Amino acid sequence: MREFRREDFDTLWSIDQSCFPPGISYSRLELATYMRRRGSFTLVTEAPPTNSRPSAKPCTQPSGIVGFIVGEVGRRDAGHIITIDVVASARRSGIGSKLLEAAEERLRAANCRSVSLETAVDNQAAMAFYKRHGYFLVRTVPRYYSNDMDAFVLEKEL
Ligand SMILES: CC(C)(COP(=O)(O)OP(=O)(O)OC[C@H]1O[C@@H](n2cnc3c(N)ncnc32)[C@H](O)[C@@H]1OP(=O)(O)O)[C@@H](O)C(=O)NCCC(=O)NCCS
């Protein structure tokens, strides 16, 4: 895992496009704006070079990036996860958990006492993932997404 570099941007945007349906995925401008916001940070996971995993199936973007997370240190000691995206072929191998734990650690280090996020109400994988990580449901926001889908707001004490 490493910090985002500027040359990663196109790959991250294309991963986001593949992870979410239209209306929930970000436009390039939206993603760039969130990533540049004051207090925000982006962590990236790269797959090990394939020659160190001779039996591994090719499962990555050409860049080798298999996932990323965008978080932000907000006002009043509140952290926020803006997005977490793992390429479909690399899911259920702990990458999302490592990204989320690293982001939570970053927020703790910045004195955030809690972290919140939004997820589409039909995203069962995300709900199972966040439940596993100790997040609880705070409220529902009707028509949160531009495709009119409602969002659950989830939160966790840090
Ligand atoms: C949600 C997401 C980030 C999870 O990433 P991941 O790398 O697959 O997660 P992990 O392998 O660390 O999973 C940890 C645990 O979460 C739960 N979980 C994750 N995906 C799940 C699924 N599809 N169904 C049920 N439980 C799931 C399981 O308890 C899992 O542990 P297990 O594999 O030992 O059973 C990934 O599915 C993803 O990128 N989805 C598309 C984008 C998205 O929906 N992002 C979140 C909304 S903002």
Provide an overview of this structure.
It is a single chain. A hairpin with a 4-residue loop joins strand 3 and strand 4. This protein is about 30% helix and about 30% strand. The chain has a single domain, classed as Aminopeptidase (3-Layer(aba) Sandwich). It has 4 helices and 7 strands; from the N terminus they run E-H-H-E-E-E-H-E-H-E-E. It is α+β, with helices and mostly antiparallel strands and about 160 residues long. The protein starts with a strand and ends with a strand. A 7-stranded mixed sheet has the order 1-2-3-4-5-7-6, with helices on both faces. The model has no long low-confidence stretch (mean pLDDT about 90). The chain is globular, with a radius of gyration of 15 Å.
